[in-house]
Amino acid sequence: MKENKTKPDIRFKGFTDDWEQRKLRDEAIEILAGGDINKEKTVENGKYPIYANALTNDGIVGYYDDYYRVTAPAVTVTGRGEVGYAKARMTHFTPVVRLLAVCSNHDCYFLENAINNHKVVVESTGVPQLTVPQLSSYNIFFPANGKEEVRIGKYFHTLDNLITLHQREKRKDFRKKINIIVGYMNLVIIYKDYGKEENMATRGKSINLFLMDGEASGRIKCTLANWTGLAYKIPRIDLDRCKSREDLKQSGVYFLFGKSENSEKGIVYIGQAGARKNGEGILDRLKEHKRNSKKDYWTEAIVFTTSNNSFGPTEISYLENRFCNLAKQANRYEVKNENDPTMGNITEEKESEMEEFIDYAKVVMGTLGHKVFEPYAKSNVDNQNDISYDTDENNTILYLKRKVKEFGEVQATGMQTSDGFVVFSGSHISTEDDNTVPQVLKERKKTVKLDENGNLIDNMPFSSPSYAAMFVIGKSANGLVSWKDENGKTLKDLELNK
């Protein structure tokens, strides 16, 4: 609602009274800032939650069994990071440092949305933060009729639950924009399929990479703006240098990366590690893998944990399951997990938060050099003679068709990638190689998976278009002239015209 208006343009039926603009401090019973945690009294699962200045895990960093500072209902407001984010709380709780709390007689869901729609103005010249005096000076319009306030609050709360539900279902190609105007609030919400990359890729990201050893080949610490997640890239030979890292004694999820001796594919093992009674967590688990002779293939580990030590057994089980399935679906790496990790029991609210964590983790993982979650292309196969692919708009689908003596016709589809070239599943390849084919390609063909018609079951990556062409044909070939687009133009010509 504009300042010179006292009534909203659109409102629920039956309400006609004027609205009034008031300072939040005049309407609140109390506005307070959080304090330090009493670590001796915190428990993993208790009666009264402890909320931190974070969005992941609903901000919960622990529980007290017999103490709380704020009586519900109340609203928490973040003072750092995602400054000014409000959340209604319906359980007695304790806020920690940099989290603000508002206690009032107003409907919590209404107040939550009123604060979230208020323009955030921070006065700090350093790290942006919201203080109690700044929050207290917020000018907010309130309905004169309390019933209208409750009605609006209930409406937005229901809408928030619907958003969580649709995120959880991950419906394909589901994208819908809804304009909602209730009172002075104009809220635009975009439903997006969380199975797609677009929700992260459409915006720029600020990523901090800290070279812990002063060189790119050493240990790297990675953080992302407005994300409580924390990632480490650790070479296998440098594990012992991490023993003083307290955050690597926490719970988290890890990836062990290596190279296959028989193919161009990378190898990955995905696991979880919980904090142990002896004070050891992720790092101790990595050391166990280093001593395991059956896992001598890995050369570096990438670890995901949090800066506020908020992961419990539920979170790491869910992340391990999702990361493992995403890596298998992408089929860019050979996943060495023998058993499928269990997802565990997780609430839909926490699942939504973990999916947000996964979105950020995908960005970080690619930045650290592993495209384990990125498929070469998504194939849509109705039958082996009718294959289409969803690819990046900057890439071109390429085709190879040739008659091979003593075998017959080969037909393959592929695409250049940032790593070289990929031959898509469904391609019909020669099963025989002559003496002009490099030995490494012959060895790969011995382990390739074909269906009953001799078509590739999996996408096959190669270091160059020529290696890909030789693999398909079974003879020496120049990939720049063997691969052509749908108009018959060779890859060589396409590169010259770019």
Explain what the structure shows.
The structure is a single chain. This protein is 24% helix and 27% strand. With 498 residues, it is an alpha+beta fold. It folds into 4 domains: 19-145, Alpha-Beta Complex (Adenine-n6-DNA-methyltransferase TaqI, Chain A, domain 2); 162-201, no CATH class; 207-367, no CATH class; 378-496, no CATH class. It has a 7-stranded mixed β-sheet with strand order 12-13-14-17-15-16-18. A 4-stranded antiparallel β-sheet has the order 2-8-5-6. Strands 21-22-23-24 form a 4-stranded antiparallel β-sheet, covered by helices on one side. A hairpin with a 2-residue loop joins strand 19 and strand 20 (386-390).
Please specify the SSE layout and strand pairing.
Blueprint (H helix, E strand, L loop, with lengths): L18 E5 H4 E6 L14 E4 L8 E5 L9 E5 L7 E4 L4 E2 L3 E6 L3 H9 L15 H5 L2 E5 L2 H24 L6 E7 L2 E7 L6 H4 L5 E5 L8 E5 L4 E7 L16 E8 L6 E8 L8 H10 L6 E9 L6 H18 L2 E3 L12 H20 L10 E6 L2 E5 L7 E7 L3 E10 L2 E4 L15 H9 L12 E3 L2 H9 L5 H4 L8 H6 L2
Parallel strand pairs: 3-7, 16-18
Antiparallel strand pairs: 1-9, 2-8, 3-4, 5-6, 5-8, 10-11, 12-13, 13-14, 14-17, 15-16, 15-17, 19-20, 21-22, 22-23, 23-24
Helix pairs in contact: 2-4, 4-8, 7-8
